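for the recovery benchmark. tokens below, seq after
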């Protein structure tokens, strides 16, 4: 679902832009750069200019797009001249000019003015991935142009890149916003920077090259380790498929630039704790579970956080079967509110409350904070995750949610939730099935099959409680909405209170 533009060779023919799974056609070669009837993020994508780096676009078409934008988007134009948008466009135009287009004077003039404007509008108020993008753009502009301004942009860009490399990439290689999508985007930024440094032929006074390489490789290892057998990222926090390049493309690109080689896959039982980020991976062949028990994001900017602490995703035989609900949009919509809610994740809701106080499109007030998290191998060879968060301590009863997940190394996962505190409370534990899964309920057991009717796994309550199935939503990509089935385990009683269920993979003979 990467940005696309469908057009003919003539600048007078219609243009069809497709971003975020929404299309818009502009007739007679005239583009409405404002298009208020489209979502704001769609309009941003229009101004990013990612699409001009498609090598299949005829040069005449690219020339028309740049000239048209310059003519109709003067400085101050809403959305076109926001720092994040300018940052992406500066980098995309420079990539275009370095790779395949002879620059025209008007383009260079506009690009220069955009870099000057960005220098005075750096997003110190947002920081995080926005600030990093500002730094990347200033670095690119500093490397591309010559003169005093360019030297200053280069210094400022490198300063930001050095600061944010250690600020944004944690000791385990993960990105501090705890979004696999933004992790992917940010690691590509650093590979781009290293690529430009090494290929430009310029001599720059920079002593951090080795540190950049080491940290970028750690981030690449992290990306490799958290990917599902289908080759794609988990959908924790604000993550969607089709925005960043696919992990395979990123790793291939890193191989070309850095000589990076990912570890060989293993059929053995492997557990991996990314404790700084808060991701815990249990993998056996083409079966994989990843559990989230980390901070929701940086304290000063949790804009992309969801209520997904102690949630997980599960893949069996290479296909996702229990999923995070994903993200549909960045609008003040019902879909946005649902996607960030606790019930949209495979975790526990207590008394109908949210584990973190989500409000607005990008805001979080009081937050669920991890109490502890660990991944251990037991004496019988089983792998066990255990962790807890204090998100419900702000409510009556001062509650702590503790979860353990035990995998026998073959086919069975036991998920046990314990709520500690005082008083009588109601628990709901949600399990979101992939939309391609069907189900049949027999008593306290749910049999889950694929669309052909082949049994994939069964999930059953262990101990007291009730089990029901309700309708839900799955947003694997921006603008994509699919219905799915959600299993809900419920129990009410005085604390401490436990709620447990078992997931048993179908034997190969049954599954086939």
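predicted aa per position
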């Amino acid at each position: 679902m990467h940005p696309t533009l469908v057009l003919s060779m003539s600048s007078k023919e219609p243009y069809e832009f497709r971003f975020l799974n929404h299309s818009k056609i502009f007739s007679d070669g005239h583009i409405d750069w404002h298009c208020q009837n489209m979502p704001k993020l769609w309009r941003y994508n229009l101004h990013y200019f990612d699409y001009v780096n498609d090598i299949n676009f005829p040069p005449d078409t690219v020339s028309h797009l740049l000239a048209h934008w310059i003519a109709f988007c003067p400085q101050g134009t809403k959305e076109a001249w926001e720092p994040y948008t300018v940052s992406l466009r500066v980098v995309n135009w420079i990539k275009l000019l370095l790779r395949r287009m002879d620059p025209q004077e008007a383009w260079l003039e506009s690009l220069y003015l955009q870099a000057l404007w960005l220098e005075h509008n750096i997003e110190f108020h947002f920081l995080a991935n926005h600030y990093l993008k500002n730094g990347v753009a200033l670095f690119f502009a500093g490397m591309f142009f010559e003169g005093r301004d360019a030297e200053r942009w280069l210094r400022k860009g490198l300063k930001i890149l050095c600061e944010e490399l250690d600020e944004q990439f944690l000791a385990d290689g993960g990105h501090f916003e705890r979004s696999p999508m933004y992790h992917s985007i940010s690691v590509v930024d650093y590979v781009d920077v290293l690529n430009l440094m090494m290929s430009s032929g310029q001599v720059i006074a920079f002593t951090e090259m080795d540190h950049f390489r080491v940290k970028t490789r750690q981030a690449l290892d992290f990306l490799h380790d958290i990917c599902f057998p289908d080759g794609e990222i988990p959908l924790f926090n604000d993550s969607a498929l089709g925005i960043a390049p696919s992990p395979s493309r990123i790793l291939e690109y890193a191989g070309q630039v850095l000589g990076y080689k990912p570890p060989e896959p293993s059929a053995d039982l492997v557990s991996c704790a990314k404790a700084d980020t808060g991701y815990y991976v249990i993998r056996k062949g083409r079966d994989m579970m990843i559990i989230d028990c980390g901070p929701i994001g940086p304290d000063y900017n949790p804009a992309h956080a969801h209520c997904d602490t102690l949630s997980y995703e599960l893949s069996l035989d290479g296909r996702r079967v229990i999923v995070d609900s994903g993200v549909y949009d960045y609008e003040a919509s019902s879909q946005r509110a649902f996607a960030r809610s606790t019930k949209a994740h495979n975790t526990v809701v207590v008394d109908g409350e949210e584990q973190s106080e989500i409000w607005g499109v990008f805001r979080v007030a009081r937050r669920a904070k991890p109490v502890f998290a660990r991944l251990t191998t037991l004496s019988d060879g089983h792998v066990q995750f255990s962790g807890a968060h204090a998100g419900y301590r702000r409510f009556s009863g001062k509650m702590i949610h503790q979860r353990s997940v035990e995998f026998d190394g073959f086919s069975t996962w036991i998920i046990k939730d314990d709520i500690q505190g005082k008083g009588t409370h109601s628990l709901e534990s949600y399990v979101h099935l992939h939309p391609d899964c069907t189900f049949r309920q027999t008593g306290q057991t749910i049999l889950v099959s694929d669309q052909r009717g082949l049994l994939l796994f069964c999930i059953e309550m262990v101990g007291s409680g009730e089990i029901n199935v309700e309708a839900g939503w799955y947003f694997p990509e921006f603008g994509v909405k699919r219905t799915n089935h959600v299993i809900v385990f419920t129990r009410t009683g005085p604390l401490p209170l436990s709620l447990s269920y078992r997931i048993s993979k179908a034997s190969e003979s049954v599954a086939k």
